[in-house]
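One chain given next:
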Amino acid sequence: ARLYPKAQQLLPAALITIRPPNELQVFERSRKQRQRFANTVTKALTSLGFSRGIPFTHFFGDDKSRYAFHLHVLVDGDWLDPEPLDELCRKIRRMIYPRWVLRKWGDSLMVNYRYKPTQAQIYQSLQYCSRPTFTQLEGNEWLADSIRGERKVRVWGKWDEEPKWHLDESEKKVHSLVALEKGKCPVCGEPIKWDKGVTPFAQVQAEGNTEIAPGYLLLPTERPPPERTAGLH
């Protein structure tokens, strides 16, 4: 939820993906090593003119049994023609990898820049990057201890601009429904603690409510005390 107001300030945007080769994954297996790599990437992008960004750490790709540390970084972006795009990717490689790595892999080192000109693409990128990738514990028990307490999402730069885009009401209700079905509050993102009691619908209507998803109503956080019934003291 805290990332959404920041993502709203990006329009257009770009998603930069950086993944060390399989042979180098052994050097990125500890929290300290991953943090070092993420800091190096942040410094490189900042020096290249990206004044703010949201880096996401992913531990796996499509194969959930094979550790594959990589970063997705959501930044302000513009459309780049092939030549300046290639030059940007080469600069990033030179700034984050040592010489021996560059000599061995060169331009095959994975650095992707994807232009995101619409709010739908930016929101989709935010959802994609925010999803958990460590979903298979078997065979990866060592990683469970390694990532405990690790920050999977970071931010840098100033985020004090007005929003450049908003979800429309129908989109909000769809995403609220998805959150509710996952057992999370669509307002704050925290796990929902369901009350076992049953509240009469007439009382819900009397208190005032807002539909946040089909079949779900949001009640006011501050409610007036119940009225006294005549004759009871």
In short: Residues 169-218 form one domain. The longest strand covers residues 67-76. The mean pLDDT is 85. The chain has two domains: 4-146, 169-218.
